[in-house]
Design brief:
Elements (H helix, E strand, L loop, with lengths): L1 E5 L3 H13 L4 E5 L11 E5 H10 L1 H10 L1 E3 L2 E5 L2 E5 L4 E5 H14 L3 E3 L15 E4 L6 H5 L1 H4 L1 E15 L6 E6 L6 E9 L2 E8 L1 H6 L7 H16 L4 E2 L6 E8 L3 E2 L2 E3 L14 H18 L3 H31 L9 H10 L6 H7 L1 H17 L17 E3 L2 E3 L3 E3 L14 H12 L4 E8 L16 H17 L3 E7 L10 H4 L12 E2 L13 E2 L2 H21 L3 E6 L4 H6 L14 H18 L6 E6 L10 H13 L4 E5 L17 H11 L3 E3 L6 H9 L5 E4 L1 H5 L3 H9 L10 H25 L4 H8 L7
Helix pairs in contact: 1-4, 1-9, 2-3, 3-4, 9-10, 12-13, 14-15, 15-17, 17-19, 19-20, 20-21, 24-25
This protein binds flavin-adenine dinucleotide and flavin mononucleotide.
Flavin-adenine dinucleotide (FAD) binds next to helix 1, strand 3 and helix 9.
């Protein structure tokens, strides 16, 4: 077999090594345009887990790599004169030059042919090869040559960055967030060998221009960075080596394989430097290719196997990198944060590290985070324990005069069980049991303001006395048997009205017994849905009056809070999104115009709703669709409602149009809550695939939301909050009838948690830094 490899970076060299081990008879050649020791850049970093993988696939190169590496466990975050260190991370670094020399040497040992100073511009010279590996890096010539086939998507990110080096020694992966007269500058730095560290500097395009970096050469810009970070560099110089400022390209390719050619490494997919996974991805691509070649009967089958088997893993890493890079791009959102909360945000930005996880390895740090959180709660006028604060999930929150005992919320969820809009026994048990279960706040399902405002025939309403009496019974039960507060969500279905019960066909039109629907514009939801009537001024007035009447009834029922439903494509949302509002009058066109009617309704019910009771608005912070609402629009929408007196924005997303492309995942809507909260400076509630108390604490502690709502988790577990309180040792109200159960779970949880933590600690392998420290510990210290 003949294999040609274009590009002698980590991907190409490691692929050569693994393939040659597998097929000693194969003729494998690597073509590299640079000289052998002519490598650019400074250090690379790997996690312990990545090294474990290398050990499995090629012990000799692994051994040499690990002999050369610098190890560290801590991440240090410097921000506004403070430094927070968090241990247990398990990283190591080495120089890129050394890594490549080790891989070259190993390849030579195995009889791989290495041709340096050989720039390949035409793959046709490899017509006789069985396999051609395109590992020619981030600016891959061959990816571009076959652009129509590979269909790359190159997303050039907005921040500017440059890669430099220094002689400054570092004992931790170091982030420095530096205030300057031009705005924030960030350094990502780590040591990779004795006396050498990598320094990646990053800032946004505005600050870059304001700092006058635009016209400077490499040396001059390094000098500017040395001025900014001089206090930390301690007189150590900044070194340059092709240290040009660039914008990071996130690269993805629709196809990875063309005939017998295959993309590997940066040519195929990049991962932002802030998660340090570029070289890992490149070398693990080589592993995946070698595995596929070992397992499949033909090259064709192997390449298909490589692409299908590897894509998900690569996309997962790229997603984590995306989340992380977006955090750095928007660092000014957090610039006014308490430094420890800021550091917690840095640590947890990419979702892999969480509150519980940090509690195990950096308990002091988490205690500080808890204290800072409690201090903010205290500053808002609530009397909480500042010395031994409970976890953020169990900190109270005050909105106007309403005080919530904790921050866990039952998200609004239609039960489709009402008869003519009247909530019945099912609702009493449903809301009652969740209130007893300990949540701080319970939302009702979307409660419709008129008969024709209903989504389905099973939706609850609040337009007549019978419905009012039914809701009063539920509110009284909640208040009489729990510490929970209960909020009424009011809505009008708009073009999604007259549709079937969820389990009979969500959003599908009723076959019989429907009613006429209205919307901002006459656009049906499905092509075969009812075409809604474009709402006119008279109907707008009538529906506004229905909202006011329902709000007044809600107050009479005793609800503690009122939410206006302006999300998910229902009537008020249909005004806000340009995808569902094509009006040419004062209620269409600009966002300000599209917001006019929802704001009018909000103002009318705010006036009718008692001043001491809070109000929230639920929005879809993105339509997940081309031309629709975006996160930036959501900030404007939140500001507009904020000016109108809203106390909380309930940040949901989507459900506006059928062809939306939501990107699901754990906590997938939380980034929108974070953006709205920290840019519009309004309290938010986040929701969406949040399933554990650990996630709730992580979100709250990082300042990404003020309340966390859980929908589906509460459908199966009414006692979600009670159980979490037992786990974290926080108190939660419980009716006397259930006290023996509470006492038992609280007692058992202390032991269960201890066992669980012990198991986790025991099960966690020692990091290489820990092992090295143990191995080099002087005997006298034993
Ligand atoms: C600022 C910055 C910081 C980074 N920090 C880290 C980090 O901390 N950790 C980490 O793991 N990764 C990091 N990376 C990423 C890492 O450098 C790359 O992801 C990794 O090198 C990709 O390996 P590769 O083999 O795919 O590509 P490359 O290393 O780019 O190798 C491609 C090779 O192909 C050669 N070549 C290109 N075209 C041709 C041709 N036509 N003919 C012959 N040869 C050709 C090039 O000369 C090059 O040697 C960083 C990247 C940047 C930009
Ligand atoms: C059965 C069901 C009914 C729902 N009904 C409503 C509703 O009436 N009003 C509303 O704003 N959201 C409604 N939602 C959306 C939830 O409030 C929540 O935003 C969504 O389920 C995502 O949260 P989760 O991942 O925690 O379930 C409903 C969700 C479910 C599962």
């Amino acid at each position: 077999m003949k294999i040609a490899i274009i590009g002698g970076g980590p991907a190409g060299l490691y692929a050569a090594i693994l393939l040659k081990k597998q097929r000693p008879q194969a003729e494998i050649t690597v073509y590299e345009r640079n000289r052998a020791d002519d490598t650019f850049g400074f250090g690379v970093v790997f996690s312990d887990a990545t090294l474990d993988n290398f050990e499995k696939y090629d012990p000799p190169s692994y051994r040499r790599i690990t002999q050369e590496f610098a190890y560290w466990d801590d991440i240090a975050v410097h921000f506004r004169g403070t430094v927070h260190r968090v241990g247990g991370n398990g990283f190591c670094g080495c120089s890129r030059r050394m890594l490549l020399l080790i891989l070259q040497e190993r390849a030579r040992e195995l009889d791989v042919a290495l041709h340096f100073e050989t720039d390949i511009d035409d793959e046709s010279r490899f017509a006789d090869a069985d396999l051609v590996v395109l590992s020619d890096g981030i600016n891959s010539r061959f990816r571009e040559k076959h652009v129509d086939h590979f269909q790359p998507e190159v997303d050039l990110r907005s921040n500017k960055f440059a890669w430099m080096g220094s002689t400054k020694p570092l004992d931790a992966f170091t982030f420095i967030f530096q205030e300057t007269e031009w705005g924030p500058f960030i350094a990502h730095a780590y040591q990779y060998e004795a006396g050498r560290s990598t320094w990646i500097f990053e800032t946004d395009a505005d600050n870059f221009a304001k700092a006058g970096l635009e016209g400077l050469n490499e040396r001059q810009s390094a000098d500017r960075m040395a001025e900014i970070f001089g206090w930390f560099l301690d007189g150590h110089p900044l070194l340059i080596n092709r240290s040009m400022w660039r914008n990071f390209p996130m690269i993805r390719n629709r196809r990875w394989v063309k005939g017998n050619m295959v993309l590997l490494g940066d040519a195929k997919a990049t991962a932002h430097f802030s998660i340090g996974s570029g070289t890992k991805l490149a070398m693990e691509d080589a592993i995946a290719l070698a595995d596929a070649m070992a397992q499949a009967p033909t090259v064709d089958a192997a390449l298909q196997k490589y692409e299908t088997g590897r894509r998900e893993e690569v996309e997962k890493t790229q997603h984590a990198a995306d989340v992380s890079l977006v955090w750095f791009e928007h660092v000014d959102r957090f610039w006014n944060f308490d430094p420890v909360q800021f550091a917690f945000g840095v640590m947890t930005r990419a979702k892999a590290i969480t509150y519980d996880n940090l509690t195990l390895r950096a308990p002091e740090f988490v205690r500080e985070v808890d204290k800072a959180f409690a201090k903010q709660v205290h500053a808002n006028g609530l009397d909480v324990d500042l010395d031994k604060p409970v976890a953020p999930m169990f900190q109270p929150l005050k909105l106007r005069e309403m005080k919530l005992a904790n921050r866990a919320v039952v998200s609004p969820m239609c039960m489709y069980a009402a008869k003519e809009g009247v909530a019945g026994d099912f609702h009493l048990v449903h809301y009652g049991s969740r209130a007893i279960g300990g949540a701080g706040l319970i939302f009702t399902e979307m409660t419709c303001v008129g008969r024709d405002a209903r989504i389905t025939p099973g939706c609850a309403g609040l337009w007549n006395d019978e419905q009012q009496a039914a809701w009063t019974r539920i509110v009284d039960f909640v208040h009489g048997n729990s510490a929970a507060k209960i909020a009424l969500q009011l809505g009008h279905a708009g073009r999604k009205g007259a549709t079937k019960l969820m389990w009979e066909g969500m959003d599908r039109p009723l076959e019989q017994g429907g009613w006429d629907t209205v919307s901002a514009s006459p656009i049906p939801y499905f092509p075969d849905s009812q075409v809604p009537r474009e709402i006119d001024r008279a109907a707008m007035d009538r529906i506004k009056a229905e909202f006011v009447a329902a709000a007044e009834r809600g107050n009479a029922c005793g609800f503690d809070m009122l939410e206006l439903h302006c999300a998910h494509g229902y009537l008020l949302a249909s005004f806000i999104s340009p995808l569902t509002n094509t009006r040419t009058d004062d209620y269409g066109g600009s966002l300000a115009n599209r917001l006019r009617y929802p704001l009018e309704v909000f103002a009318a019910i705010r006036a009718a709703w008692p001043a001491h009771k809070p109000m929230s608005v639920r929005i879809s912070a993105t339509d997940w669709a081309e031309g629709g609402i975006t996160g930036d629009d959501a900030v404007q929408i939140a500001r507009a409602f904020g000016e109108a007196g809203v106390d909380l924005i309930d940040v949901s997303t989507g459900q506006t149009v059928r062809d939306a492309q939501p990107v699901y995942g754990r906590m997938f809507q939380t980034p929108f809550s974070e953006q709205v909260r920290n840019e519009a400076r309004v309290a938010t509630m986040c929701v969406g695939n949040i399933t554990t108390p650990d996630q709730v604490n992580t979100i709250l502690a990082a300042g990404r939301a003020d309340l966390v709502a859980l929908g589906r988790p509460h459908l199966v577990d009414p006692t979600f909050t009670m159980r979490a309180a037992a786990w974290y040792g926080a108190d939660v109200a419980c009716p006397p009838q259930y006290l023996p159960g509470k006492e038992q779970i609280f007692r058992n949880s202390v032991r269960d948690r201890q066992d669980f933590d012990d198991l986790k600690i025991k099960g966690k392998p020692k990091t290489r830094a820990e092992l090295k420290a143990e191995a080099t510990k002087p005997l006298a210290a034993e």
